[in-house]
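Dear Dr. H.,

I hope your travels went smoothly. While you were away I took the liberty of generating a structure for the chain from your last submission, since the lab meeting agenda had it listed for discussion. I wanted you to have the full record in hand beforehand rather than looking at slides cold. The sequence, exactly as received, is reproduced here:
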Amino acid sequence: MGYWELFVSAFISSTILPGGSEAVLGYLVATGTYRVDSLIIVATLGNTLGAMTTWGLGMMAARKYPVAALLTKEKQKALATVQKRGLWVLFFSWLPVVGDAFCFAGGWLKLPITSAFILILLGKLFRYLVVAGIFV
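The corresponding predicted structure, in token form, is as follows:
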């Protein structure tokens, strides 16, 4: 297992599929075989790109289903939260369960992509710094 597997795990973990990128990162950090900073960058990049994929899915879904009532309850709640709290909610895209829904809602609402990317990236980086710190 190495960088590529971590990237794929992180990407999948941030899309509509469940994953365990934290466990993969923790394992790789604990082995001491890889540079911790490189592992954090790879995990953050993969997870951020996965989140932006979910953001894009939200944008496409808004075109096809312009009525929010057609969304799942989870996505409706996330949509309401992002509408109420604003763009900054995307920093919390690292949270389990609701994080992916926040990214979807950001795309649905067509929030500015550059700002969304930066906030999502910072949130994901924060999470992986904490996870890596636990296993160092």
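Two observations you may find useful: The radius of gyration is 15 Å. The mean pLDDT is 92.

With kind regards,
E. W.
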